[in-house]
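Researcher: Next entry in the queue.
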Amino acid sequence: MSNVLDGKVALVTGGSRGIGAAVALRLAREGADVALTYERREDRAADLVEQIKAAGRRAMALAADSADADAMSAAVDRVAAEFGRLDILVNNAGVFLVGPVEELGLAEFERTVAVNVRAPFVASKAAARHMTAGGRIINIGSNMAERTVFPGFALYAMSKTALVGLTKGLGREMGARGITVNLVNPGPTDTDANPADGPNAAMISGFTALGRYAAPTDIAAAVAFLAGDDSGYVTGATINVDGGFTI
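Model: Structure for this entry, 247 residues:
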């Protein structure tokens, strides 16, 4: 039996660790050839490429700072050129700059918007040039876009909320071409940046209905569904994979 994504090519931005790495591996296991971008952790990116190749798929890693619009556009074009097509774009890369609003300067604002908002727009714009019917654009947002329970998250929540509008607008625009655009909002997820055994983990878990963190693979499962044929009538939607954080 063939895999769901056989013959497809996917690009995952910020794919060398955490949720991005889990997404890249899941898409590969579903049959896709997978490219990923990374900013600093070349070692992790290289290791992930080897894991994808070991699963029998083509893989490549591209160094690209998501804050660099030209680099993001070039990365998308290179993946399409190297693999001959592009079917799935997962806009996963993000920055997490938090603190009291009076202590956040324009530098933090500009980088947050550049990575969390402009990069998904630029990458989606570039991907749209290569995608055909059946294409998938999947944005990775945050539960903080719908429920901001801690002080200091105004800038981050603003940037992730912008993805709701981007997803809906692109979903409307791309629909006539048979391309879907959707948003996944993870809740507390066990990553290096927010470990499930961290000092605030018990309190954070308490805000969820399930009382625990997600594993990165939980988020990857939702992305895999949106990347496949079974989600063909889902577009412009937000899927909260947050253990009930926002209910």
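Model: The chain is about 40% helix and 15% strand.
Researcher: Noted, moving on.
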